Amino acid sequence: MYPPPRKDFIALTLSDQHSRSYNNGKHRRQSCWRKWKQLSRLQRSLILFLLALLLICGLLFYPSFSEQWRGRPPAPHSLSVDRLETVREAFRHAWKGYKEFAWGHDELKPVSKSYGEWFGLGLTLVDALDTMWILGLTEEFKEARKWVETELSFSKNVDVNLFESTIRILGGLLSTYHLTGDEMFLEKAKDIGLRLMPAFKTPSKIPFSDVNIGKGIAHPPRWTSDSTLAEVTSVQLEFRELSRLTQDPRYQEVVNEVMRLVHKLPGKRDGLVPMFINTNSGQFTHKGVFTLGARADSYYEYLLKQWIQGGKTEPDLLEDYLVAVEGVKKHLLRTTGPSKLTFIGELNHNRFNPKMDHLVCFLPGTLALGAHNGLPDDHMDLALQLMETCHQMYVQMETGLSPEIAQFNLQPSDGRDVHVKPADGHNLLRPETVESLFYLYRFTKDAKYRDWGWDILQSFNKYTRVPSGGYTSISNVRDPVNPGPRDKMESFFLGETLKYLYLLFSDDMENVLYSLLYLGPKCSMTAIYFYVLW
Fold first, then answer.
1. Residues 455-487: pLDDT tens digits?
2. What Gene Ontology terms for biological process does this UniProt record contain (predicted)?
C-alpha cells in the first residue's frame, strides 16, 4: 500500500495542440541550458551537491524507497490490519466449504466436497466457536450458536475418545462461555463433562481412552488395556475449570488423582516419562522410550499450565516440570552438523534418534511462558533456539510448510539440516509452531516472529487452499508441483491455527489479553489458563 497522493502539487494546463500560444519545448530546453552555463562552477557544484543530498535523504527516509534500498519489499501502511484481514478471509473461506459441504458434521473433506464423521458431534463447528468470536465474525458465530443450541445433542449411542472430545468439545464450549457469558454454552459443557466421567472408573483410576456417552460405559481400545500418557494427563485444565464453574468438585478430583499417581510412579528418567500407562495396574508400560512428540507431548505442557492455573500453589506440578526440562536437556537435546540448529530428539532404549515431530514445536512457547512466570532464564534461551529450529522446519521445505516428522542431520557438512522420510512428509495444518510464535512475539516484541507466521499463512494459502472452500492437509511438503491433497481439514485448523495467527498479528491488546484469560480449557496444544501475560 502506497501513501495517498500529496495535495501540494503543481498543475500544468496545456492548450489544444494546434494553438499557437503553446511554446516550443526545444526552445525552452535551450534557454535553460544557456542559464545553466552562465552559472559559475562553484554555483553549479553547490546545486548538484544539494540535489544529490536531497536524493539520498529521500531514499533513506521515504519508507517504500528505503525498504527497497535495503533489499526488503516495502511494508504496507497498515501491515497488521492487512494481515488480520487475510486471516479473517482464510477463516471465511474455510467456513464456506464447511457450511456448504459438511454442516453439522465433524470434518470437511474439501477436495471431494463431502464430510468425514468421527463422533458425529460437529467437531469443527464447536472447535471453531471461540475463533469466530475473537475474529469478530458475527454472522458466522450466530449461525453456529443456533446449531449448538438446537442440534448438538450428547444423547447418542456413540464411542468418543476422552482426550479428543475434552479438548475439542468440552474445551470449545468452556472457552466460548468465558468469551460470551452465554449460559447455554456452559450447560452444554456440563452435559458432555458428566457423560465423560465414566472413563475414570477404572481399577487404577487412570482413565480409559473411550467412552460411550449415550450408555455411560467406558473401555480401553480393543487391542490394548493401555492409555497414552499424553491423553490421560491432558484433560486436566478443562475438568478443573468445569469444577470451578459448577462448584462440583468431582471433575477436579478425578483428574488431580491422575496427576498424583503419575507424580509417584517409578520408570521415569530424569523427569522424562514413557508413552503408555496401563489402566488396570496404573503402571508405565513400554518403558525405555522417551519422546516429547506424539503420545507424550502435552503431559509436559500441562504440567506448567496447571501450575499457573492453580495460582502456582501446587509444588508437585512445578517440580515435575522443572525436572523434566532438565531431563530434556540432558538426554534429548542436540545440535545439527551443518547450521548448529538446536533440536529435541528421542531416546529408544538408550539409543538416540535425531527425529523430531512437529508436535514438539509446542515447547518454545511453553518454555517462554515458564520463563515469563519466574522460571530460570535459560528456559527462554532454549525457547529462542528451538523457535528458530521450528521455523527452519518450514523454510527448508519447498512448499514452505513443515513435515509431520523431521530427521535432523548430525554430521558436519554443507548439506541440509532437515531431512524428511517419504512417509513423514505430510502436513496436517497443525497449530504448534504458530502458537509458539505468538508467545515469542508477545514476550520479545521481535517482529520477525510475526513475519515467520505470515510466511506460514501464505504457504497455507498457496498449497493447501481448495478453490471451492476449505483447506486440505497435504502429503508431500517437498513437492510444490504436486503436494498431494489428502482431502481433510482438521478441526484444529479453525480452532487453533488460524486463531493463533490472528492473535500473533493483532495489535488489539484488549482482545489478546481477553483471549489469553479465557482460552485455557481449549486444547492440549494451546491452553493458557486465567493468567495475564503482561
1. 999 999 999 999 999 999 999 999 999 999 999
2. carbohydrate metabolic process; ERAD pathway
Is position 107 annotated as part of the catalytic site?
no
Record the cell numbers describing residue 136, joined without a space: 469478530
Catalytic residue (one of 210, 231, 238, 297):
297
pTM summary value: 0.83
Q: State how beta strands 226-228 and 276-278 pair.
A: antiparallel
For residues 118, 196, 245, 513, the Cα torsion angle rounded to the nearest 10 degrees is -30
Neighbours of 502 (CB within 10 A): 28
- The one catalytic residue among 140, 357, 404, 490: 404
Active site residue 85: no
How many Å apart are CA 448 and CA 504, to the nearest integer?
11
Which residues are bridge partners to 357 per DSSP? 405
**Which sign does the torsion angle of CA 288, 289, 295, 300 carry?**
positive
**Given 127, 130, 140, 164, which residue is catalytic?**
164
The pLDDT of residue 65 is 34
Q: What are the structural domains of the chain?
A: 93-121+226-532 (1.50.10.10)
Confidence of residue 161 (pLDDT cuts 50, 70, 90): very high
407, containing H or E segment: strand 405-408
432, 435, 490, 496: which is the annotated catalytic residue? 432
The region that residue 273 occupies, defined by phi over 0 for left and psi between -120 and 50 for alpha, beta otherwise, is: beta
The terminus-to-terminus CA distance of the chain in angstroms comes to: 32
314 is catalytic: no
200 close to 249: Cβ distance less than 8 angstroms: no
Per-residue pLDDT reduced to its tens digit, 136-149: 999 999 999 999 99
Rounded alpha-carbon distances, angstroms, from residue 2 to 44, 63, 77, 87: 34, 9, 7, 22
Specify the residue for cell string 472413563: 199
Annotated active-site residue 432? The verdict is: yes
